[in-house]
Amino acid sequence: MRSGFTMCRTFFIIVFLLCAVSVRASHVLVPMDAEYQKNHLKAYGIAYWTLSKSMKVQWLLNYRGGSFLLPDTGAIRKECTIRGVSYEELSDAEAEKLLTEISSPAKNQEAVILEKAPKVVVYSPKDNPPWDDAVTMVLTYAEIPYDVVYDEEVLADKLPMYDWLHLHHEDFTGQYGKFYRAYKMAPWYIQQKKEAEERAAKLGFDKVSESKLAVALKIRDFVVGGGFMFAMCSATDSFDIALSAEGVDICEPMFDGDPSDPNYQSRIDYGKTFAFTGFTLERDPNVYEFSSIDMTERRRIAKEVDYFSLMEFSAKWDPVPTMLCQNHTALIKGFMGQTTSFNGEQIKSPVLILGANKANGEARYIHGVKGKGFFTFYGGHDPEDYQHRVGDPKTELELHPNSPGYRLILNNILFPAAKKKKQKT
Which superfamily does 120-417 belong to? Predict the structure, then answer.
């Protein structure tokens, strides 16, 4: 009798344990909504870290701010805890129900599979500290590894080793950022100009403008061949201007030692650019501006009401722009830079406007296709420093772990990891 009781009890214990195993968490959900995520920026680092361990991630577009669904491992949960990232545990049944709901045609949501951690590189002077640029700053904060290359490596064809390239706020026109009027006597300006001229000569060029054009052409080829390129601030319009002015001297004597070509505006070739067309170059070397592309000097918006809106796309039909716009808010605080925003009338028609201040006629965040690759241009210098100036202290991202403006940068970093569908828009 006792033996029968013991066997019965053992049977129920086994059944209980089997049931417990069947309902235990087998997925980790990293929510990206405003209410439940403590650190949005480091959450991207968790997704990247998971990919780097040869595990796939599902990016749940438009679900709770663009959440991530990860396999459940002790290592992932431990990593979330260490980095201060909020997460929830889901059973197989709960995860399956969630994915079924997302797949409904009635919902503007989609689950996109991220397969491989993209290899990231930043085009930047080697001696620039990480906090000199918003992208290097957020990469460091999110604990996403990256390499740094500059003119030498680009011209030596090192870019094809990477999946994703960021352009530090560079001047590809050879005009040293148009800082001439304000800083021509500053020691740092004089030193940087000297170093740029020496580097160009070492690489076999007579002028800095010629070496920067050669770099811009290599970057163009990287994108056309299937690379992903992201640029902010002055790297956006100066890159396109350099391409459009190939074979034309647009630099005044204080920049390159000889006069610019007469009537050079008429020789600009808009067919060579990525994003912009019909722009007029700023001829005056004393004006801190490259062209009519940038809206900085024409903006009449008070800081308190300076916001831009993210566009809404179909997650199922247009996953690419939807990925790039994932956020826990559709309204992003504005911020300025040498190139703050883009003239909406001078953006090529195939280019998608992802974020804009329509009342001011300006685009803040744009994306396009070039050959087999993609590019994204983001206006402004630092999403959490409204009007960054030379010498200002760095932004402490520990104080802005949920920054919507910085999330847009990190969306782009994960973008190359996704299986791509043909874009409909």
Answer: Class I glutamine amidotransferase (GATase) domain (3.40.50.880)
